[in-house]
Amino acid sequence: MTRATAVSEELVTLEIPIGPQHPALHEPIMLKVHADGEEVVKVEVNTGYNHRGIEKLTERNTFYKDIFIVSRVCGICNTVHADCYVRALEQILNIEPSPRAKYLRVLAQELERIHSHMLINAVMAEIVGFDTLFMTIMRDRELVMKAKEILTGGRVHADYFMPGGVRRDIDEVKRSRLLDILKRLEPRIKYYRQVFERDPTITKRLTGVGVLRPRDVVEHGLVGPVLRGSGVRSDVRAEDRYDAYDEVPFNVITYEEGDSLARMLLRWDEALESLNMCRYILEHLPQGSAVVDERKLPRRFPEGEAYTRVEAPRGELTYYVRSKGGDKPYRVKIRTPSYNNIINSAFSYIGYSIADVPVILVSYDPCISCMERAIIVDRRRGIRKLVSLRDLAMKGVAV
Amino acid sequence: MSFVKEVLSHLLRKPVTIEYPYVETSIEQDSRGRHFPDLRKCIGCSLCAIECPAKVITMKKLPSELKPPKNPRGLYPVINYIGCVFCYRCVSVCPVNAYVVSSEYRLASDRSIESSEELSLATLREGESR
Fold it and tell me: Does the CB of B101 have a partner CB in chain A at under 8 Å?
């Protein structure tokens, strides 16, 4: 009996390497797409272009320096990395931050979730060829960046977390400015959600593309909005109730459809939910001190280990920190959500056309440098030609 | 149709992007910008150089003509701004709060300032001339 894979390998006429360099997204990855005509029959995911050895670097630096090193694993989700690592240190040190510090931590993380979700929705608009929408979303994303600057002192890198609290507090003036920004942001997010729901430019490209059944996502260990977009109710914020998530009310949003549109709409809904959380935090901020005096923190750590997880904008992020005493960690293990979502999702491209590959990839919110160009190799005729991402996304591949 | 309205509403407006060198970017007063140690306060303890995550602070010997009273070892920190990540760890660990902070983000200019050496030494010379 002939195996199905053997049949498909014979039929392959196109092998399209997508990646590994693209300036629009954040990390380089290569998708080697095997196509039978327009239909994708196999996808190989090649990673490892961006290995910086951060886990090893953390072992060679002190616990406190590592807070700033791990927050540079990813620029978009730096506060969640720092929060996860700092909570691990707090577990080893056995200290508890003040309620105000916990609220401010959640505020920083939720602001980050809003701008991360806005960014990937803007990138999706660009990928489907709707550049005007990309521009307007990125313009309104600046509001969130400003809010982050007011709160933490940096537009992108917050450097806001320290064991036992946060590194700067907000006063009444800043509080009212942040509330004002949220007030201006809310109608914009609602409007963009409506555009994604109704505009035919978006819906025609996204509806029914990259459909994942709940069984598929659970079997392949996909996390975050990809999981919730297929109707599986799983959110670390609701499961672990870390920081102030036990006091701040929020809903876990799920969509049953499981296609690319459901994942993007879910991100808009989550952004709105985060916005409501930010407003709740600013209106119910507990009194007391939040800022920790970094000069009084212990220099040497006791022996111990901690395993923490947070809900990053892209899904569940986990940290394992082991201390053997002294001032440096023995081991820091980081598992990021993108790794799960991208490595394990090769199965989901099969059966769709080549033009759908960028759409499906972006709907997983990859933390990767997207695809600059593709080389088409026609094995029968021995022709090689370059296709830009724009052509690939807008027209499909004209062979 | 709704998006057409959105686009049309921008036709008569000015561009959102700022013409940067001619128009200043609005920046928060307390955002993390260029910082340097005030040598009138610095005690030369090297704590900032030890704690710097980017390892860009080096301790240098003070010139022999400058003798601040609180600095027995005669050392002062020099920040290399090229590699600095502006996390302000040095500012928060300093036991005498010697760092002068600012929101200055324009580090590339015709008179580029690559390290804090001149700025720091100027604080000491100012102090002596007063």
Answer: no
